[in-house]
Specification:
Chain lengths: 549, 355
């Protein structure tokens, strides 16, 4: 109830928000202008469109679509999905947290190179990753071929099912946690760790007792993204023969051509997503402001000593598996194609289009995420928290449902932008908003709002204070958010296929089109371009980190 | 470092402004790109005309054919490529407002799902293909054919080891050696054919026997053929033409070949891709010319030679390595009937073949 009153009463202030006017208001009204609330509501409203569409579709067919949920072995599918989610999320955290700490805080050799390489698996579409893993480690894959001669191994153990699906999804999605944790580690105050060292704790004890608890909000945000991604992934689970919700939904759209049942099932999937979001939210309650005033202090690098080699081996192993194997298989396909006389494999036009779309998506999504993030951190309450949680649903939905939802609304109410890049970018915002919100939010948690208040008391406007005081401090979070949205847009397929301007071709659609018909060399070339194009922004981020140190 | 904040500010503002400006320019450039394209393409052509095609058949196979069509007619064809299922759903969401003129689908089920959105085709056009390759009410026409077949691993098996009909694979000796893709549309169409040719009882027996042999479940045809070639499974139930893609990609050393069941029946049913014209087509004339082109000798030869599919019109020869169409089974059913499809899916679900 309080929240609605905030909106109503703050209206006169929103327009002319200078400090002198604000001084006349009670303190709880001074902070966030109406425009910020309106922006946040508008963004969450856009995210709600696909959900609304699913409800319309499922309801339209009356009870038949809802009943049909019970035709499926829904509980069994649910149980399988949960097993996969738990394994993938745990595995991702176990890989990503040490890796993030090693690449930010220690003297790990080549740590900047590892930082770039550790993010790149995010750029590999899951079906390409799964195909590559099957080619490499399948019962009759490349590895088996090499082992057959010297060791007489004629078949490797089956990687299909839960094991294979979780390994592949861990390797492709641990970067969500890696990036969120890294962005937070950069802004973490060194005092507490230093105090811990002074008191004689070992680096390991310090990490476990001091650093790790400070990282919980970031780990939670990253883990939620991994869990939701696992829930919505289709490519990897289909190729690795593990039945989850997405496979049933896909079958309804593509083989049964039944949109109503697909919508009803998607709503079940959304219910699972909402439970995951609530679990993370209840774990998050412990998160507090940790920051003092001096956010940019130089921090001590932890000397790994005799742990340097094991740490190096660990980082190498992760990169070898998550990036090295897919790239190796792609290069293998490409060389085989080139030797067979294929030419014109590199489609630079598609690469350029992909980069355009992804840049636009990154900038727009980060800007759209700011109001929700700021309000949920600065004005925690029913409305702001609700808006923030709600922004997550798009990420959990199958891309095809988001695409069709925007077709539904676009063709009716936004004909002018239908099948243009504008509606497509809106789809990317809906899909990837939570990625940006999660990263920006965990950075904002470390900014003491008093710094902004101080700037305002010195006569800066609210926007000015936000841009000049807060933005510089959360810059790593903003940059990480932009990069993650960029990488995800580069590989996004279902919504791009449905909503892309007619005749437009991106790297992801080229890969799909080629892989569908077993043109492996023609799929490999754009996949490699995808990885290379995605490496650029991450390299940029890491190099800037160096210049700040 | 007292000057840090103002410096940084200036740099930050400039960077942000530059970034935003760059994105705006890119976005505008990119949307005007498309306009340029259309003016370029339609400019030099004397006949002009535009056509919007939604193609569920993939760009890697169809794009060269579209170029030939444009060259032959001067029509500027714009193609929206995606999966048949998502395009069918898109067309249904778009309804009357759809910009599409033609829907070119990978399988008749996709056409069946949008049947109320399409208009009848001329008798001349539809008469070029055999009865079994078109809709009974002239609403869509088959464009090319693909045969259901058994792909087998040549290291593990030779044709003599293989049974005459699909029913032979229910023998327990095939336990753990079979690959299939029950979510695949062509597979489901085959089972629908099976129900009509064999009847429900025999189809159930077959499914029960195959499921008892614990087949490996692949996502679709391509991975099934790949797994057969690598020896992960020894046989796979697939469409015939994927093998030829693998042979082209990996050379003759690829250890799999097609086996056309000598006993015929549903295991060697022939399935079609098809096309239809939307009622709401703005470019109905161009749309008819496109279908006319797809059923011309030139396009049908392209399917025969480049995609290794069966041509459907008289006078165009199939590729040498394919068996005669007459030896394959052409079940007398309306393959776009979704009611049959739903019954097939329920049956597959009952045996745990579908989730």
């Amino acid at each position: 109830m309080n929240r609605t009153r905030v909106i109503g009463e703050e209206a006169p202030v929103g327009s002319g928000s200078t400090w002198t006017h604000r001084r006349l208001l009670p303190p709880w009204l001074r902070r966030e202008p109406l425009s910020l609330w309106l922006a946040a509501i508008a963004v969450a409203g856009a995210a709600a469109l696909p959900v609304l569409y699913l409800v319309v579709r499922a309801a339209e067919s009356g009870e038949s679509a809802v009943d049909s949920i019970f035709d499926f072995d829904t509980l069994a599918i649910l149980w399988r999905s949960i097993q996969l989610i738990v394994l993938v999320t745990l595995g991702s955290v176990l890989i990503a947290v040490p890796l993030a700490w090693l690449t930010v805080r220690t003297d790990l050799p080549y740590r900047r190179a590892w930082a770039v390489a550790s993010v790149l698996p995010l750029a590999i579409p899951s079906y390409v990753g799964a195909l590559a893993f099957i080619s490499a480690f399948g019962p009759k894959g490349l590895l088996q071929g090499w082992l057959e001669g010297p060791f007489g191994v004629d078949r490797l153990p089956d990687l299909y099912g839960l094991t294979g699906a979780s390994v592949v999804l861990i390797l492709l999605s641990y970067p969500y946690v890696f990036l969120t944790v890294r962005a937070t580690l950069w802004r973490l105050e060194p005092e507490m760790e230093e105090a811990s060292w002074t008191l004689g704790r070992s680096p390991w004890q310090t990490f476990r007792r001091v650093t790790l608890p400070l990282l919980y909000p970031a780990i939670g945000a990253g883990a939620l993204l991994v869990a939701l991604y696992t829930l919505s992934d289709f490519g990897a689970v289909a190729l690795l023969q593990y039945d989850t919700f997405t496979r049933v939904i896909f079958n309804e759209y593509n083989s049964a051509f039944n949109r109503a049942v697909a919508a009803a099932l998607s709503l079940v999937l959304l219910a699972v997503a909402v439970s995951l979001i609530l679990i993370e939210a209840s774990a998050r309650r412990r998160a507090r402001y940790y920051s003092g005033a001096n956010a940019a202090r130089r921090r001590r690098i932890v000397r790994l000593g005799r742990w340097r080699l094991p740490a190096f081996i660990f980082s190498s192993l992760v990169t070898l598996l998550a990036l090295g194997i897919p790239v190796f298989v792609l290069v293998y396909w490409l060389t085989r194609g080139v030797n067979a006389g294929e030419s014109g494999l590199f489609d630079w036009g598609a690469a350029f289009t992909s980069v355009q779309y992804s840049l636009a998506a990154a900038v727009v999504t980060v800007i759209a995420a700011i109001p929700i993030s700021v309000l949920s951190v600065r004005r925690p309450g029913l409305l702001s928290t609700g808006l923030e949680r709600f922004s997550y649903v798009g990420f959990a939905m199958p891309g095809i449902a988001v695409g069709l939802g925007l077709v539904f609304f676009g063709i009716r109410y936004a004909t002018g932008i239908y099948q243009t890049v504008y509606l497509l970018v809106l789809a990317y915002v809906v899909l990837f908003l939570p990625v940006a919100v999660g990263l920006i939010r965990s950075s904002l948690l470390q900014v003491n709002p008093r710094m902004e208040e101080a700037a305002m008391s010195l006569g800066r406007s609210q926007i000015n204070a936000f841009l000049t005081v807060t933005v510089p401090v959360i810059r790593p979070g903003l940059a990480a958010a932009a990069i993650m949205v960029f990488l995800l847009t580069m590989k996004e397929l279902p919504a791009t296929l449905i909503l892309g301007p007619i005749e437009s071709r991106t790297l992801a659609t080229s890969i799909w089109s080629a892989a569908e018909e077993a043109f492996f060399a023609r799929a490999a070339a754009p996949s490699l371009l995808l990885v290379i194009a995605s490496a650029a922004p991450m390299t940029f981020l890491v190099l800037r980190e160096r210049s700040r140190n | 470092m007292t000057t840090e904040i103002p410096n940084f500010l200036a740099r930050r503002t400039i960077l942000m402004a530059l970034g935003l400006a760059a994105v705006l320019v890119l976005v505008i450039a990119c949307s005007s790109d498309n306009n340029n394209d259309s003016s370029e393409n339609s400019g030099p052509s004397d006949e002009g005309g535009e056509l919007i095609i939604y193609s569920g058949r993939s760009e890697s196979l169809i794009a060269p054919l579209i170029e030939k069509f444009e060259a032959a007619t001067g029509i500027d064809a714009k193609v929206n490529y995606a999966g048949t299922g998502s395009l069918a759903a898109t067309l249904l969401e778009e309804g009357d407002r759809s910009p599409a003129d033609v829907f070119f689908a990978q399988d008749p089920g996709g056409l069946g799902s949008i049947i109320e959105l399409v208009k009848p085709l001329s008798d001349e056009l539809i008469g070029r293909v055999p009865d079994w390759a078109r809709s009974s009410d002239n609403l869509w026409v088959g464009i090319s054919g693909r045969a259901r077949t058994v792909v087998y691993n040549t290291d593990a098996l030779s044709p003599e080891d293989l049974p005459d009909t699909l029913e032979g694979f229910t023998d327990p000796v095939w336990k753990g050696r079979i690959g299939w893709a029950p979510t695949n549309g062509s597979f489901q169409a085959m089972v629908t054919g099976m129900r009509l040719i064999w009847g429900e009882e025999r189809t159930r027996d077959w499914l029960e026997g195959i499921v008892a042999n614990e087949p490996k479940v692949y996502a679709k045809n391509t991975p099934t053929v790949a797994a057969t070639g690598s020896g992960e499974v020894e046989v796979g139930f697939v469409n015939h033409y994927y093998l030829h893609r693998f042979l082209a990609e990996e050379g003759d050393g690829f250890a799999a070949r097609n086996y056309f069941l000598p006993g015929g029946g549903p295991g060697s049913a022939i399935l079609v891709t098809g096309a239809a014209i939307l009622k709401t087509a703005d470019n109905a004339i161009e749309a008819e010319r496109f279908l006319d082109y797809l059923l011309s000798a030139e396009a049908q030869s392209y399917f025969a030679e480049e995609t290794y599919e069966y041509p459907l019109i008289d006078g165009v020869e199939r590729a040498d390595m394919l068996p005669d169409l007459a030896s394959l089974s052409t079940p007398d059913i309306d393959v776009s009937d979704l009611g049959d499809l739903a019954a097939t899916q329920n049956l597959l679900r009952e045996f745990g073949a579908l989730p």
